[in-house]
Amino acid sequence: MEIRPYDKKRDLRNAERIWHEIGWVETPQQASHLKDFLSTGSCLTGCLNGGAECLVHTVPGSIRYLEEELKLCVVTAVTTSRIARRQGFAQKITALQLAEAALEGAEVAALGIFDQGFYDKVGFGTGSYEHTFKFDPATLLVDREFGVPTRLDKGDWKDMHAAMISRLRGHGGCNLDPPILMKAEAGFAENGFGLGYYTGDELTHFFWCDGKGEHGPYVIVMIAYRNKDQLLELLALIKSLADQVSSVEMNEPQHLQLQSLLREPFRTRRNTKNSEHANRHHTAAWWQIRILNLAECLARHHWAGDAFAFNLRLSDPIERHLPDNNWQGVGGDYVVKIGATSGLEKGLQTGLPELTASVNAFSRLFFGVVSATGLSYTDHFELEAPLMAQLDAAFCLPTPRTTWNF
Predict the structure, then answer these.
(1) What is the pLDDT of residues 44-57, one digit of tens each?
(2) Class level of CATH domain 2-106
């Protein structure tokens, strides 16, 4: 096994082949945008016989934690060719990329998953459910005026990235810093188009869509807005497409319950069953998250209730994938204090209640994905009832929603 940094001249052709093999690109036009995708951030390759057969790509970003920001490493691609499976490339290289990101200041890491379980081995815990709706835009219960939008095409990627960075985010909302990523993402959608609104030279709110045929489905792959009025204007704009488009698919915006804005959703779902435009509501936790810097994360947590402390025995499975002279994860023994100002000290203190947990589970608790009680049922998360009740209260947070697919 040889692991080395990605080199465009040596590796781009192999990268395109890998992405074709795994089905992430299907046409030369889509593949042509891979060079932009890999031109930013950090990419390591795993090689067999001198040729790249595995690539792990990361970019810097940020994630909203209540009213504060944490530095984020986003693992945007883990790709392995057909001949390099079961060689240990993906986990090893992902671990090395996380270690490098942690050393460069990242406090949290996140990624999208192909299935649950694989990335648990490098310390990731499952994120919250994301809701995806496919609906007839004519059934949207949005009755308001909307302005004439501006057409957006793939050349508007800088404006779209700026709008995404400036969008209204809630707890868990992620930003991916490199603008050129937007150029690649827009290019991957062969039938992509956007509609949006400018104030002066600034794109304030928009959606980007991958269209299909005369009647859809249209898949909205990103949406950005800065306030309620802008979101409702975009929904009214989507409704206006109903003159021709029979179905639209989109992730539920963080700031509303989309089902409440659909007319007779259950009846429509029954009546469209087995159709190309079948209405549906799909829920899945497609992303995972892990802490890279425990002290910095805890410093962002402010609990208005009675302060308390506990011993934390934290394990981190990433250790087994890293060389001894590298960052070794966040495992260890700590005294954790939760209050208006939260933090930790290394070691253990006699007489305090104790939590034994994996970083996978503790990351889920910290972001409010699952309560301490729930984690004690399913994860490596062991503690007594009094501490469980304190943690349930202190980490009762809004549901984290990324609102940026990666």
Answers:
(1) 999 998 899 999 99
(2) alpha beta
